Amino acid sequence: MPDSGLQEKTTPTHNEMILIIIAYLSALLVFATYSIGAMGLGWLPAPYAPLRVPLMCGAIAYVGGALYCFRAIYLNKCVYKRWDPDWHVWYFIRPLTSTIAGAVSYLFLKAGLLVLESSSNAGASEVGFFALAFIAGFNVDKFVAKIEEVAKAVWGIEKSRSAQVRTSEPSRLVDTVSTPSPPDTDRP
Description:
6 helices, transmembrane, membrane, transmembrane helix
């Protein structure tokens, strides 16, 4: 006989889950925005000063990822009325992948494997790093595809299996930057 003191677990409704997702994204957005401002004002402790630009790239990429997620919520819930609870976890993980992509974009720019201009990245300013980080965070799929192209060209490393699956199904990919379709390119 079950203990009468224990209550059954209840799962949040769709609307409650959307509010949880929005609160999560907003809280991290406030943290990222504060971090960008603090680092921009030089508030980073001295031992971490050399990491200022890559940390800012990660935070700025989060802003791009949050924009992508907020837009996905708006479009999928309000415009197209096709909210799918199977994708709730995506809204929690996607901004983290954006942050990682932004930090990695710094690494590839600094190594000279990606260039901001057609000539060279020798005089690339921090703003260029931040712009690429935002784009990497906003469109992780395209950024990862570009990194895989660089890896193949420089080191001969073949694309990952997930990239090969994506390229074999081109009709499922949508360029969210150039078309007004919903931002769910990394959804099947």
